[in-house]
Amino acid sequence: MSPPPALRADAERNRQLLLEAAAELFAERGLDVPLTDIAARAGVGVATAYRRFADRDVLIDELFDQRLAPLIDEARAGLEMDDPWEGFVQGMRSVLERMSGNHGLKQLMLGEVRAGDRQARLRAELIPIMRELIERAQAAGALRPDLSVTDIPMLNIMLSSGMTMTQTTEPEHWRRMFAIVLDGLRTRRDGPSELPVAALTPDQLPIVLAPPQAAGD
User: Fold this and answer.
1) Residue 205 within a domain
2) Residues 105 and 98: beta-carbon distance below 8 Å
3) What is 86-137 written as a DSSP string?
4) What is the dihedral angle through the alpha carbons of 109, 111, 112, 113, rounded to the nearest 10 degrees?
5) Are residues 44 and 95 both part of a single domain?
6) Statement: the pTM of the whole predicted model exceeds 0.85
7) Is the pLDDT of residue 216 over 70?
8) 3-state DSSP call for residue 186?
9) Pair 115, 144 in one domain
10) pLDDT tens digits for 115-158?
11) Within a 13 Å sphere around the CA of 121, how many CA atoms are in the beta-carbon half?
12) With pLDDT > 90 as the criterion, what percentage of the chain qualifies?
């Protein structure tokens, strides 16, 4: 089967503009952004958008493929670290850092949208890596022996909930919560770890806990 013909320079330019606009909007607003909004952000007509991508799912698939490989590589880098505990931390942190500030990726990773095939592909790549990171750290006596690989998505959900709540007030606050979680997972330490981010102030807390406003309020 012969490969599809190469796009003209202007068509390829429009395609890249649409991919960049979609990546920005998915990160900001999630995966339900309409293709019309993506076309407007890209500065191209809606008809042009539909010529390049039949629908929004095609865009999501291409962007997902682009972002899956770096995420997997970052998690796998933990297996190359000499310290099994630091390798485990690297694996967890790499996922959380990718989700932080990217609403669309968070939706995909945590199952907040119907994207079974994409989520299945992600889990098929990521879970074996996380299982190996956990087993290495447990064998070294650094990680509590009763932690299961199935606990990791639940911890990610817990931490990502805090990410969402503090995104506009203190976007790095999740790192403080992550450090507290790690102290609970580690078997040996001389004392509590230094927390990398300050606690929310009394003025920030009610802002974070306020229910989100509906669009148009």
Assistant:
1) no
2) yes
3) HHHHHHHHHHHHHHTT-HHHHHHHTT-S--HHHHHHHHHHHHHHHHHHHHHH
4) 100
5) no
6) no
7) no
8) strand
9) yes
10) 557 777 888 888 999 999 999 999 999 999 999 999 998 999 89
11) 11
12) 39
Contacts of 183 (CB under 8 A, 6+ apart): 189, 192, 193
Residues 86 and 158 in one domain: yes
Asked whether 166 and 200 are in contact (CB, 8 A), the reply is yes
68 and 167, same domain (yes or no):
yes
Spatial separation of the C-alpha atoms in residues 98 and 100, rounded to whole Å: 6
- Residue 211 covered by a domain: no
Total residue length of the chain: 217
Cα–Cα dist 172/64, whole Å: 24
CB 44 within 8 A of CB 36: no
Report the CATH number that the domain containing residue 99 is assigned in CATH.
Answer: 1.10.357.10
Q: What six digits make up the tokens of 169?
A: 């007030």
Query: Number of structural domains, the chain?
Result: 2
| Residues 94/75, Cβ–Cβ less than 8 Å | yes
Which amino acid, one-letter code, is at 161? Answer: S
Helix axes 173-185, 84-99, angle to 10 degrees: 150
